């Protein structure tokens, strides 16, 4: 280590406050130390794996509990003497003070002894060292608290997400049911004899994930996993099962907790793919037990992740949204007699139970309200046809705050007065309408006139963002767990819009197989050649690449979503053209590569015949295409400025054999063929588009190359 870095460390360790912190940690270690690796990790704040890393770098030198007398090799559990714990306290301080691990020398213990003033040598603790608080985290300074929390941020997030995704995977088979996962951190459930919920308390320290019927997931750490009414639940080992009968010997500690079978509509079955996925997600939680304790143990709040589908959970009142409506009333202030300036507030969301309807026809339903509200969650509705005077409906449809400082007599209908009383002013704030239709409306009323000043309305806009964040977070959480089965069954398919077509992976794989087995495809085609001679040579494979013209211009005009639908419509048109344009549809395969690019493989088609087919594709694609943007039949958008440039390449069996000898593998040949098609397509762009580019052995300048193909087979 450089002398400069050593001097910096010595200077840092001479600081009296630094020495006090280190001595405080040493004091705690000496008072409580049991010198196993687990206890050393708990005392120092390092994980067990980190302690092993420090040992491998010769920064720690723990003893072993056993020694092989024949080989003198140390075995057994690591034992950390007090000197090693002191050294850990010094290393921890340096790392938290932003020294790199590579900066810390192996003789850090000696450096610590050198910088201690006389009277503190030999790690003697002074009488002035303060008593250790029962809650050492609470004694940390603000910056150290922030640093500690930052170190836990990932594990707090991962643990909650791993448990949530695991629970949601199980809920695919038990939708709408409460489901729990218990991860024993200290013992094996089989060894301690856990068979029913009565036995759960034997597990001791456990991490628990719980999915309730509203879709909310709870994460907590408990030393006593149990239920008040134990007979309401049943417990199963996490494993492959059919109708809750285990099909494998329990090999994992995790337990599943469910309602009794008679309280559910079906029994649980889990396939191997689901079980293995869950096990792999949860495995790190068992490996980092100390992090789980620090994230969710005493002194730390449990993690609660809400993902309620507010449009489907009926009368469920979300605690976050409910708290925000109460906070709105509180923010309005009070009169001298303690009465609130603002009477009540409610949050209105579109009623999507009837599906997506036009903005002007959407009904708003109460999804949260403050304590004094006369409305009922999930039942009170504002219907456009019946609530013409409702400022909530009009604010939702206009995207503007509507404020009535003095409610007119014309707006005081009998139904209005019967529900809301003799209110004097009200305000409706659209939520999330800055970039499209609003997500919701915040509606607030008051018994006083002119109750909502400009400053009040500015504040309500800010509160509206709080509400928007909660609603959109719920929506995102729901979408990330939507159709999890497809991730297991079809993991390669992300965008299902182009499901009808083979993909680039299929193209590369099929070309590799074609190149590797050229003799086989030649024999297959020869069997049919006598029945149909129109394809040309049987020992040739041709490729057609299709790319649409002016895609960027069209995207700017119509938007990316419409262009994706257009690309799919083009692919479907090509698919329709394959059968009538070829008499061997089984020998022609279509692939969607990406965006607007499609490839075709034509086995047994010569270059001339492939060019003829490409010319027919070009003509048929240069027509108007209807894009259906919505389910409604009258919502089709007709795009007329459509054309394509195409590329044709052909290879004989002999040429493919040469490629195999020239290149290192069939994969290299496949990549070369794909890149050649891309390069020829670029030539088509240079020609202005709406063209077929193909190999021309008799170019006008006498040099063979790729050029424009005409119907007569001559270069234009």
Automatic annotation (TrEMBL):
Tell me the organism: Ktedonobacter racemifer DSM 44963
Protein name as annotated = Transcriptional regulator, MerR family
Q: Read off the SUPFAM superfamilies from this record.
A: GAF domain-like, Putative DNA-binding domain
Coiled coil region boundaries: none
Extract the InterPro entries matched here.
DNA-bd_dom_put_sf, GAF-like_dom_sf, MerR-type_HTH_dom
Tell me the Pfam families matching this sequence: MerR_1
Superkingdom per UniProt:
Bacteria
Q: Where is the HTH merR-type domain?
A: 35-111
Q: Which GO terms describe its molecular function?
A: DNA binding
Q: Name one GO biological process term.
A: regulation of DNA-templated transcription
């Amino acid at each position: 280590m450089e002398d400069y870095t050593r001097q910096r460390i010595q200077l840092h360790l001479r600081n009296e406050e630094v020495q006090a912190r280190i001595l405080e940690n040493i004091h705690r270690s000496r008072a409580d130390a049991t010198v196993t690796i687990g206890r050393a990790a708990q005392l120092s704040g390092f994980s067990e794996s980190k302690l092993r890393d420090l040992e491998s770098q010769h920064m720690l030198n723990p003893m072993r509990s056993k020694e092989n007398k024949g080989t003198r090799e140390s075995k057994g559990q690591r034992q950390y003497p007090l000197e090693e714990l002191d050294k850990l306290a010094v290393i921890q301080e340096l790392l938290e003070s932003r020294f790199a691990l590579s900066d810390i020398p192996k003789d850090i213990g000696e450096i610590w002894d050198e910088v201690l003033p006389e009277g503190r040598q030999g790690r003697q603790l002074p009488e002035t060292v303060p008593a250790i608080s029962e809650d050492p985290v609470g004694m940390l300074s603000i910056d150290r608290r922030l640093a500690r929390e930052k170190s836990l941020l990932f594990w707090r997030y991962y643990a909650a997400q791993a448990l949530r995704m695991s629970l949601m995977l199980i809920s695919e088979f038990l939708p709408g049911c409460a489901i729990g996962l218990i991860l024993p951190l200290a013992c094996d459930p089989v060894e301690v004899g856990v068979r029913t919920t009565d036995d759960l308390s034997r597990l001791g320290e456990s991490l628990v994930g719980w999915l309730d019927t509203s879709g909310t997931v709870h994460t907590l750490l408990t030393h006593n996993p149990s239920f008040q009414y134990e007979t309401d639940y049943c417990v199963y080992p996490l494993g492959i099962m059919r109708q809750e009968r285990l099909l494998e010997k329990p090999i994992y500690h995790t337990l599943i907790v469910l309602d009794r079978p008679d309280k559910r509509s079906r029994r649980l079955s889990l396939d191997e793919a689901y079980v293995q996925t869950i096990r792999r997600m949860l495995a790190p939680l068992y490996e980092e037990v100390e992090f789980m304790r620090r994230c969710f143990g005493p002194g730390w709040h449990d993690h609660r992740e809400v993902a309620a589908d507010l449009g489907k959970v009926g009368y469920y009142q979300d605690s976050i949204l409910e708290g925000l409506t109460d906070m709105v009333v509180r923010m309005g202030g009070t009169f001298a007699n303690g009465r609130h300036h603002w009477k009540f507030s409610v949050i209105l969301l579109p009623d999507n139970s009837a599906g997506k309807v036009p903005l002007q026809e959407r009904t708003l339903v109460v999804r949260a309200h403050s304590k004094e509200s006369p409305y009922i969650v999930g039942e009170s509705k504002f219907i456009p046809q019946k609530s013409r005077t409702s400022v909530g409906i009009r604010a939702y449809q206009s995207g503007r705050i509507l404020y009535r400082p003095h409610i007119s007599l014309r707006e005081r209908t009998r139904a209005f007065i019967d529900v809301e009383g003799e209110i004097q002013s009200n305000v409706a704030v659209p939520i999330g309408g800055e970039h499209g239709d609003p997500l919701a409306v915040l509606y607030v009323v008051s018994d006083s006139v002119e109750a909502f000043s400009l400053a009040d309305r500015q504040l309500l806009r800010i509160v509206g963002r709080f509400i928007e964040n909660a609603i959109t977070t719920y929506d995102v959480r729901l979408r990330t767990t939507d159709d999890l089965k497809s991730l297991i069954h079809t993991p390669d398919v992300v965008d299902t819009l182009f499901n009808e077509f083979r993909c680039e992976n299929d193209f590369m794989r099929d070309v590799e197989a074609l190149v590797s087995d050229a003799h086989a495809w030649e024999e297959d085609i020869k069997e049919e050649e006598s029945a149909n001679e129109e394809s040309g040579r049987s020992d040739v494979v041709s490729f057609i690449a299709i790319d649409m013209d002016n895609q960027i211009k069209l995207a700017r005009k119509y938007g990316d979503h419409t262009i994706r639908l257009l690309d799919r419509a083009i692919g479907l048109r090509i698919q329709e053209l394959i059968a009538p344009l070829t008499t061997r549809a089984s020998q022609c395969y279509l692939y969607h590569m990406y965006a607007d690019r499609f490839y075709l493989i034509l086995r047994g088609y010569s270059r001339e015949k492939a060019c003829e087919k490409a010319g027919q594709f070009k003509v048929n694609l240069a027509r108007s295409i209807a894009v259906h943007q919505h389910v409604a039949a009258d919502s089709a958008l007709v795009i007329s400025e459509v054309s394509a440039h195409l590329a044709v390449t052909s290879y004989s069996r002999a040429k493919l054999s040469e490629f195999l000898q020239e290149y290192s593998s069939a994969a290299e040949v496949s990549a070369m063929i794909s890149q050649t098609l891309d390069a020829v397509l670029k030539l088509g762009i240079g020609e202005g588009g709406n063209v077929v580019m193909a190999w021309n052995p008799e170019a006008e300048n006498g040099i063979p190359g790729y050029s424009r193909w005409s119907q007569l087979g001559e270069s234009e």
